[in-house]
Known about the structure:
- The protein is an alpha/beta fold.
- 28% of the residues lie in helices and 32% in strands.
- The protein has 2 domains: 8-138, Response regulator (Rossmann fold, 3-Layer(aba) Sandwich); 153-259, CATH 2.40.50.1020.
- It is built from 8 helices and 15 strands.
- A hairpin with a 2-residue loop joins strand 11 and strand 12.
Amino acid sequence: MNEITDKLTVLAVDDEPPALDELAFLLRARDEIAAVHTASDATTALRLLRDGGVDAVFLDINMPGLDGLELAGILRNFALPPAVVFVTAHDDRAVSAFDLGAVDYVLKPLREERLAEAVRRIADRRRPGPMAAADPGTGDDVIPVELGGVTTLVSRSSVHWVEAEGDYARLHTATGSHLVRIPISTLENRWADAGFLRVHRSYLVALPLVTGIRSVGSGLVVCLRGEGNAEPVELPVSRRHTRELKDRLIRGPMQSWTSR
């Protein structure tokens, strides 16, 4: 980072010249940015990045040779890796992007206000204080959700229960629900150690919110208390998951649940 102005030095990477020119133009218009370098392929970008002095990379995904995700994976091994923002026309790679530690995921066609938000996120991460403490790197898993071209990060700790919808999953929180392109089985494995349990082929619940189970007809339902603006909810429990649910409730909350 420029030590005098405390502004960002960034690198824009895209193999399509018109897209690269537009990205560089919009970045140069931002007051937070002191200098914008460009590269038309990942190999050139990597050479520039190894020279140091770049605070953030705005990176296309689909490029010939080394693609954007592969380049981001290499950057994670740097002693002081730059922040990474993916700029792409594809909305189906967001989970992989955030798994690599991306700060943001911006969809093409570019909108000036959306790119400005990504720049602000990078600048906020570099400042001490509450914004830095809210960084996804603190350990609370996050899921990127696209809504109207804007990427919102939904934290695992805000999710009360998950509903399967084919190859998608719907995350239910106190403020609403979010459909994500992730199978519920993936979230079941990913969040198991954080106190989430599969109670039905269609439902995954946060155990700290479970208030009990009760019989309804010939089956069982699990009761979840409401938090924030959410109403209490009852979800069916399948026979194959009943024993594990009862065992987990009898054992009581695990220490790791507190950081779910």
